Amino acid sequence: MGACLFSGCGNPNDNSDGSIPIKGLYTLDEAYQYGWITESDLQSIAYYYHEHRHEEDWDKLLPDDFTPKQKDPETLEEFETQIKTDYLNKVINVPNGSFDQVDLYAYYGAYYDCFAIEITDTYFLYDYLIEPEHKIGNVTFLRYSNAFVRIWKKDLQY
After folding, report:
1. Alpha-carbon separation of residue 116 from 3, 97, 152 (angstroms)
2. Backbone angles phi, psi at 130, to 5 degrees
3. Structure pTM?
4. What single string gives the DSSP state of each residue in the chain?
5. Digit-coded pLDDT (tens) for 24-42
6. Who is most buried in 63, 76, 87, 126, counting CB within 10 A?
7. Distance CA 122, CA 104 (A)
8. pLDDT tens for residues 128-157?
């Protein structure tokens, strides 16, 4: 996609003009702030996030009549190479890195062109800050870290 999204075609991560930086993966807070995902999407992501972690009592945080959006696609197989390439190049800056050292731990669904995933690597040692509760919009996540759930936005690739 050779189109330039920024005037002057400067650094795609420079958003001093208020534009959205292209960085491969975004936090849930950023995706919500940019308007890419809705509160309803966040509820589905929270459902799959807590289900994956086998959390107890998290379902009390969602409305009684809540039904999560079905995962479509069901797996990330079609996008795994793109996601890992973006992670290596744009997130951890290891462009010649191995896909074997990038782990996609979980997939929490696709919301339009945004894919909610949990991804990490074995190149670096991370010390995660875990919040007992983290609220985005009106949706609460338990035992949450911004580094856990990321949004890969398919149409913001360069």
Report:
1. 25, 23, 7
2. -100, 125
3. 0.82
4. -----SGGG--TT--TTSPPP--SEEEHHHHHHTTSS-HHHHHHHHHHHHHHTT-SSGGGGS-TT--PPPPSSSSSTTTHHHHHHHIIIIIS--TT--GGGEEEEEEEEEETTEEEEEEEESSS------EEEEEETTEEEEEE-TTTEEEEEGGG--
5. 799 999 999 999 999 999 9
6. 87
7. 12
8. 889 999 999 999 999 998 888 999 998 765
